[in-house]
Write a structure and sequence with these properties.
alpha/beta, 12 helices, 21 strands
């Protein structure tokens, strides 16, 4: 799961309460995490863990830079959201800098003070990092999609592996001996396709294209429609769109479609207006491009999804005719979203050309992908990931085992195991995903899989009564990880094996701690031994890390 986790409102409220309690005195990272509710600590701990043991300033609370102050810094590692994690010389004070790379020596200016650390912007590089490379993408310096394109791929892998290891030790509370000498932590699995690996990209329309500071002199406010933007959000802004003509992460056929739309949609005679998030006026909201494969020919299939504020098929006709001329385009969809929110999921959906879905194959199975279906966005690396999950599950293959598939999405993991087990029971909160899972089971002739819609964060004492005790549990939560209710359920269930698949190594380490070491303040004892943790790079040039963990009942 590739979505970046934003800190919850409760986390911010917890931090605010801490600041009120201590007035203007700034707590260290470890003190702050001890005060916060335990389930929120992993988000903050990411900062401290990335520095390893030496986190605290040499003189605690004796140094704090002022806003606007310039500092000479060296980036030591990459931390939360891929920001460079640095320490102020001779103080150990932690600062974060966007787009600073490990080993880079630079001057930074303090822009924000955040209690126990500060954020800086890079002013000048003194010595470039040793692993710097030329980023092939024109938009890499400004786009938030892949911040580390200018870091060699081997260095990216090292940074991700180090981050996963440090979190396992400091948040998961596993000893360095357990992690390293006992071979619990495995070397990261690289992604052999580093560009054009995404099968889904979402672009946004906007009335004013965002320009970086060095290009502001090129702005022409009298250019009218030429100032319209279709692209990606500038990092940290919901209302600023960086115009993008080509994205090196999506497929070549999808880039052809994007270029064709960019070529014509601003023409005043066509009558298109981009949606304005402030006035809530405008027609075009988002453009989603999905790429699959024809299961018979193996050729690319592209779905074009226009998200609009109203249903006006006659207005879209020109663009529909334009994109459907590409042989790879087999589906053109219109999601109508009348709300003022910035989501691409519509209340209504219409098929304007071709099929209502595209297909993809994974681990020998065929999957139907609709406009809003969840599907692993890197199909090639998903093959690698799911093979690792199968190996961790250790299915005997005699058709006797029960699998409980938690956060099952559209059923991809459970269905790949179904052929070797007695039955798969999948649970997922999203109704559309459950419908897709049932359809995928039907398409592949799988009859030993049951998919149930339900919120795993709100389970009660009746959960578990509708399926037999599983031999294997697969848990693939989103970035916040598992709720304590579910962790307690799993500890009481005592399934022989749990395969934990995570897209957030911080919350993953926290949940592994609970499952293996228990929760002392709640008098909960851990029941599992962590046998292996395998990091997988699903998304090169981004800070995201996937982990596959095997836990065995003690």
């Amino acid at each position: 799961m590739e979505i970046v986790m934003m800190p919850s409102l409760k986390l911010f409220q917890g931090v605010r309460r801490c600041r009120q309690e201590f007035g203007r005195e700034m707590a260290s990272i470890s003190n702050l995490t001890n005060i916060l509710p335990r389930r929120f600590r992993a988000s903050v701990c990411t900062l401290s863990c990335s520095l390893g043991e030496d986190v605290h300033p040499t003189k605690p609370n004796s140094y704090f830079p002022k806003r606007g102050e310039t500092l000479e810094l060296v980036c030591e590692s990459l931390a939360f959201k891929g920001k460079g994690l640095c320490k102020v010389t001779k103080t150990g004070f932690v600062v974060l800098c966007d787009r600073a790379l490990p080993g880079e020596h630079f001057i930074g200016r303090v822009t924000r003070k955040k209690g126990n650390y500060a954020e800086v912007t890079k002013v000048k590089t003194i010595t470039p990092p040793p692993d710097i490379v030329d980023a092939p993408c024109l938009y890499a310096p400004y786009c938030g999609g892949c911040k580390t394109q200018n870091l060699s791929y081997q260095a990216q892998l090292r940074a991700k592996e180090d981050q996963a290891r440090d979190l396992l030790i400091h948040v998961g509370k596993f000893s360095r001996e357990q992690v390293q000498l006992h071979n619990v932590m495995k070397p990261i699995v690289p992604c052999h396709i580093q560009f054009h690996y995404r099968n889904k990209m979402e672009f946004s329309f906007g009335p004013q294209r965002w320009l970086p500071k060095e290009s502001l002199q090129d702005r022409n406010d009298d250019a009218g429609n030429e100032n319209y933007a279709l692209g990606l959000h500038a990092p940290g802004f919901f209302d600023k769109i960086l115009n993008v003509d080509k994205c090196l992460l999506q497929s070549d056929p999808a880039n052809k479609v994007l270029a064709a739309i960019q070529e014509c949609w601003r023409d005043p005679q066509l009558g298109f207006s981009p949606y304005n998030v402030y006035s809530h006026k405008g027609f075009l909201k988002h453009l989603m491009l999905r790429t699959g494969r024809d299961v018979t020919t193996g050729l690319s299939e592209v779905m074009v999804n226009f998200v609009t504020s109203s249903y006006q098929p006659e207005l879209l006709k020109f663009l529909v005719d334009k994109v459907s001329a590409f042989p790879e385009v087999v589906s053109v969809i219109n999601n109508v979203n009348t709300s003022v929110g910035n989501t691409s999921v519509g209340e209504e959906e219409y098929t304007l050309y071709g099929k209502s879905s595209i297909t993809e194959t994974l681990r020998g199975l065929t999957f139907q992908i609709s406009a809003n279906s969840f599907f692993q966005t890197n199909t090639s690396q998903a093959e690698v990931l799911y093979k690792l999950i199968e190996d961790c599950a250790g299915v005997r293959g005699d058709g006797s085992e029960i699998v409980l598939d938690l956060f099952c999405g559209t059923g991809t993991i459970g269905l790949t195991l179904a052929k070797s087990v007695r039955h798969v029971y999948g649970y997922e909160v999203v109704p559309q995903a459950i419908r897709d899972a049932r359809l995928n089971a039907k398409i592949n002739g799988i009859q030993n899989a049951t998919f149930v819609q339900g919120d795993l964060n709100k389970i009660d004492e009746n959960f578990g009564k509708n399926f037999p005790k599983p031999d294997i549990v697969i848990s693939d939560p989103n970035r916040p990880g598992m709720h304590m209710k579910l962790i307690k359920f799993l500890l009481n269930l005592r399934a022989p094996r749990i395969v934990y698949v995570s897209c957030n190594p911080a919350t993953c380490a926290r949940d592994l701690d609970f499952l293996c070491h228990g929760v002392e303040e709640q008098n909960i004892k851990g029941s599992y031994k962590l046998t292996s943790l395998q990091p997988v790079d699903m998304f090169p040039h981004t800070p995201h890390i996937e982990c596959v963990c095997l836990l065995e009942l003690q």
